[in-house]
Amino acid sequence: MNAAVFVGAARRVVVTVNLGFAMSLRERRRWLTRKGAGIARAVAPVLPPGWIEVAEWWMARTGPTWPVLSRIVAANMRSAGVYDRPVIRAYFEQVASHLANAMRVFRLADRDGAVAGLARSQVDLDDSVSHIHQALSHGRGAIVVPPHVCNFLVTLARLNQEVPVRVYLRWSEDERKIEMKRAWCAATGLDVILEPANATDPASRAAACVEALRDGAVLVMTPDIAQRSDRGVAVRLLDREVYLPTGPASIAMLAEAPLVPVFGRLVGKTHVIRASEAIVVEPMARAEGGRQASIQRAMQTWAGQFEAFLRECPQAWFLWGDSRWTRVFRGDRRYCGT
After folding, report:
1. How, if at all, do strands 270-275 and 123-125 pair?
2. Which residue of 118, 161, 228, 287 has the lowest C-beta tally within 10 Å?
3. In terms of C-beta distances under 8 Å and separation of at least 24 residues, what long-range contacts does 78-81 make, across chains too?
């Protein structure tokens, strides 16, 4: 490894940690995550393979002892009714694999077929992915709606080998965050649609997505982002009312495209992708609740399958430590009902 690169990276780590302690806990977590991702991106191409394996091993072993994150994850799992000590350990093993693969993707990005090989070695597809092909046969494209599983970038890279997909990236004021997401997608060979800056305007948000769907594209949108009660659609999930984004269902209805739920299971250390029968978001009569009721019904169908995934394989979901879901699990009335 180039010594100058290593020394420069080490200095950035020290500066990052020192500055991070001057911030609030939430600001510190976000800032350290962003800085850590930037450092990983810079260092990964020159790291010997063994170093990434060592880092993965260390994160997997020490993760359950990290004082803040492990406590939040455990509390959220208890609130969801899926807590178990082996599940916590398995979760941090998955997180370690996720972070290590992020470095591997950047390291292998310039080598023909290397990232595709990484994806094939860790992710399998079962026969149910035929639901995606069936949804596409109607000629209106399809919206694939997975949750944020651990290793989701490698998982999407594997799915992209079966059906070319485009990833919908939510807009952020942080340009470096957007650039990092774009770089990850580019390294895995994924096309992206970036949410416009004026995303509060539903028409501007939907236009690029509808255009892609009408061209027959497979668009990936992740509905498992907890919303405030005044911004999302209410669904029953894990014995409580929570609010999920309206975007996937509303765009599906506008484009007359099906929603295809995609989840997965772990077989040993291998992620196995499985798809469900498409959800058709049919407009309902005004007397039945109209557009909002149509969206709610579609998202409730997805939420039921999402809950089954969480109960079957909780260690595979990446967002147990997410701040918005933590508000949900703590009963914050801005994010959940009774």
Report:
1. parallel
2. 287
3. 79/329, 79/330, 80/238, 80/310, 80/314, 80/329, 81/238, 81/239, 81/311
- 């399958």: which residue's tokens? 305
Per-residue DSSP letter, 286: G
Q: Give which of 194, 138, 203 is closest to 166, Cα–Cα.
A: 194
- CA dist., res. 20 & res. 12, Å (int): 12
Q: With beta carbons less than 8 A apart as the criterion, state whether 259 and 143 touch.
A: yes
Closest residue by Cα to residue 335 from 259, 202, 272, 244: 244
| pTM of structure | 0.85
Three-class SS of residue 236? strand
Average pLDDT over residues 31-42: 56
Q: What is the pLDDT of residues 283-309, one digit of tens each?
A: 877 777 778 899 999 999 999 999 999
Please tell me whether residue 210 adopts helix, strand or coil conformation. Answer: helix
In this predicted model, what pLDDT tens digit does every residue of 127-158 receive, in sequence order?
Answer: 999 999 999 999 999 999 999 999 898 999 99
H-type helices in the chain, by residue range?
3-20, 25-43, 49-62, 67-80, 85-108, 114-122, 130-136, 152-162, 175-187, 202-214, 247-255, 290-312, 323-329
pLDDT for 164-205, tens place per residue? Answer: 999 887 776 777 777 777 888 888 888 888 776 655 555 666
Q: What is the DSSP letter of 315?
A: G
Cα–Cα distance for residue pair 177/64, rounded to 1 Å: 27
Amino acid at 147: P
Looking at beta carbons, which pairs linking 231-236 to residues 24 or more positions away fall under 8 Å? Answer: 233/292, 233/295, 233/296, 233/299, 234/296, 234/337, 235/296, 235/299, 235/300, 235/303, 236/300, 236/303
Q: Which of 97, 108, 120, 11 is nearest to 269 (CA)?
A: 97
